[in-house]
User: What shape does this take?
Amino acid sequence: DGLSYYKLKQTDFDGSTSFSQIVPVKILPDGFSILFTSSNDDGTISVGITGNLSHELKFEIVDVIGRIVFHQIYFGLKENLVKLTPLLSEGLYILRATDGKKSVSRKFTY
Assistant: This one.
């Protein structure tokens, strides 16, 4: 998100060109992103997230055969770090986060 500036260049059929005025465009964040996942020594999983966190965000952990082995829902997160507390065996998993519009997945080992 942020502020960007744009101008358009128009080329006519005769080859002449002209430019528009420079206009500011505010870019608003679209949803969220998972920055990282890490398994901690205390059995928790830290998830770094960024973006619009003001609405419902659902986390699911899926095992390698596709079973949902953990899920948790947050409403209006105030921080960019979430600690999940699943009871998992060692192995490869997929963390899936969704806000109802966008879904993001990250692979991790536990």
Summary: The mean pLDDT is 84. Residues 31 and 52 are 5 Å apart (CA to CA).
